[in-house]
Design brief:
The chain has a single domain (16-271), classed as Jelly Rolls, CATH 2.60.120.620. The protein is 18% helix and 23% strand. It has helices at 17-26, 37-51, 84-90, 93-103, 247-253, and strands at 28-31, 63-65, 74-77, 108-118, 125-129, 143-149, 160-163, 179-180, 196-198, 206-210, 215-217, 226-235, 272-274. The strands form 2 sheets. Strands 1, 2, 3, 4, 6, 10, 12 and 13 form an 8-stranded antiparallel β-sheet that branches. A 5-stranded antiparallel β-sheet has the order 8-5-11-7-9, with no helix packed on it. Strand 2 (63-65) and strand 3 (74-77) form a beta hairpin. The longest helix is centred in the first third of the chain and has 15 residues, at 37-51. It is globular. Bound molecules: 2-oxoglutaric acid. 2-oxoglutaric acid binds at residues 116, 126, 131, 145, 147, 160, 215, 217, 228, 230.
Length: 279
């Protein structure tokens, strides 16, 4: 079993002022060619190993939701703990550098990752939601979701759909169940101008969205899998606010170096991604 490293060249992940301003307006940014085809093949091989229960780091991901019959969505959380190639991919400074520029943060830490595998002719609806609504234990909404396409995303393969600009509405709705059958759109203020933007991107591209942007996705109607590796990240300035339950709350309590209420997130549950530390 080999592990893959992802070399970093800041020139390839430096954004223009216009791209950063557009993220502020629209709530999302698409960066093409972040990972090469060979790198995506290596990530997919690692993802299949983790799904099969092979962990080169000697421990499982924090959470597995892939044991239902029929399997309609494979969802694993914190695969970075289980596999070195997965860790190298979701923690790469390529993502950290891009996310830091988009939310103008001095540094970026991992919040958690997710491997999402929607099977062909299947998969679930992901109800429209805002990520930060589920992450109220992060006091400041300085979060970005970096969604790495592991397959070419087609209009019929259940792409994410963004409701452009909705990050400006603040906290909106919290669906009761995030996955299921409910594709219903939230009712927005009548005078609020938005449009639906399906994220149709080739594998290796990465879609970035703000923690308050409303988004969801449909089932996969295509004949191929729709896989994504998602790196949910936050500013290094973000602080812990107890209250809402989340996998990360109980996982971080298992570590000796765990943030106390009001402290900045730190410790092994939240690895730093940016800036790059000297070796
Ligand atoms: O991949 C999907 O269909 C939804 C993913 C999502 O909601 C997210 O990564 O925030």
């Amino acid at each position: 079993m080999s592990t893959t490293v992802f070399p970093f060249d800041p020139a390839r992940t430096t954004l223009t002022a216009e791209q950063i301003a557009l993220f502020g307006e629209r709530g999302y940014h698409i960066q093409h060619g972040v990972f090469s085809d060979a790198e995506i093949a290596a990530i997919n091989a690692a993802a299949d190993r983790v799904i099969a229960g092979e962990y080169d780091k000697g421990q499982p991901p924090d959470c597995r939701m892939d044991r239902m019959e029929p399997v309609d969505l494979i969802k694993l959380d914190n695969t970075w703990k289980a596999d070195t190639t997965m860790a190298n991919a979701v923690l790469t400074p390529r993502l950290g550098h891009l996310a830091a520029q988009l939310i103008q943060a001095p540094g970026i830490r991992m919040w958690h990752d997710q491997l999402l595998d929607k099977p062909a002719h299947g998969g679930r609806v992901v109800t429209y939601h805002q990520d930060w609504a589920y992450w109220q234990m992060i006091k400041e909404c300085e979060t970005v979701t970096c969604w790495i396409a592991l397959d070419d995303v087609l209009p019929e393969s259940g792409p994410m759909v963004f409701l452009e600009g909705t990050q400006k509405l603040g906290i909106w709705t919290l669906p009761m169940g995030i996955t299921g059958n409910d594709a219903q759109k939230p009712t927005l203020p009548a005078d609020f101008k938005t449009r639906e933007v399906p994220v149709i991107i080739p594998k290796g591209s990465v879609s970035f969205h703000h923690g308050l942007l409303l988004h969801g996705s449909d089932r996969n109607f295509s004949a191929t899998r729709r896989r994504a590796l998602v790196s949910h990240v936050m500013s290094t300035e973000c602080t812990y606010r107890p209250g809402q339950d989340h996998m990360n709350n109980w996982k971080m309590q298992e570590q000796p170096d765990c943030p106390l209420p009001g402290e900045k997130f730190h410790g092994p549950q939240f690895p730093p991604m940016w800036p790059v530390r000297a070796a």
